[in-house]
Amino acid sequence: MHTDVGQRIWTYLRRSPLTFAWLAILLATTVIQHILSPGALDTVLADRSTNIDHLTSNPLRVMVLSLFWLDGGGAAAYWLPYAVAFAIFLAPAERWLGWRRWLAIGLAGHILATLLSEGALALAIRHGLADDSMRNTQDVGVSYFLAAIIAVLTFHIARPWRWLYLAGVLGCYAVPLSISPTFTALGHFSSVLIGLACYPLVRNTMSDQWNPMAGWRGSSPTA
């Protein structure tokens, strides 16, 4: 019995190796965040932030390192929502797309949304709409990558559920931007649009769609 359950869990994890390896690294860095003193933690996160100063001096380094830290503290409870999000969104997307396309779409969201949001912030600073101190603001995390993958999953869902899902995704990211138009809210919404723009990369997988009602009706997923 225990062997069978363990084998099922291992099979599930093995089908999305990058998702769960990344999640394990995030757990390790979350533990490190919990151990560090507040001052040392601020130094570590500041050094890995995708802010204007770092993007100007060493963009590749911070684009990579920022993906392995969570902004918001080192409590395990803060990591758990990401574990849920990884299991619900990133793992199914990796199985559906394969790791290469999954990684390409997620990184496109992470990189392009970072450049767009920080570019908008740089313009705001130049025109006196934001304080110059925001050039080295703390900005780490996986949320832009996650938002792009959440968006591209729209094309994995059978109609008409696809449109309900898309409306929910757009609402979740557009409402915060309209209420509080910060550079991070702009980055999240940009990631969603980037994920949707990746349709050409996934259209040859459109026959593999998930129908939420298929199990209830005893039918197979429809395109």
TrEMBL record:
Domain of life where this protein originates: Bacteria
Presence of keyword Transmembrane helix: yes
Name used for this protein in its record: Peptidase S54 rhomboid domain-containing protein
Keyword set includes Disulfide bond: no
Pfam families according to UniProt: Rhomboid_2
Endpoints of the signal sequence: none
Keywords recorded for this protein, A-Z: Membrane, Transmembrane, Transmembrane helix
Parts of the chain that traverse the membrane: 18-36, 67-90, 102-125, 140-158, 163-179
Cited InterPro entries: Rhomboid_2
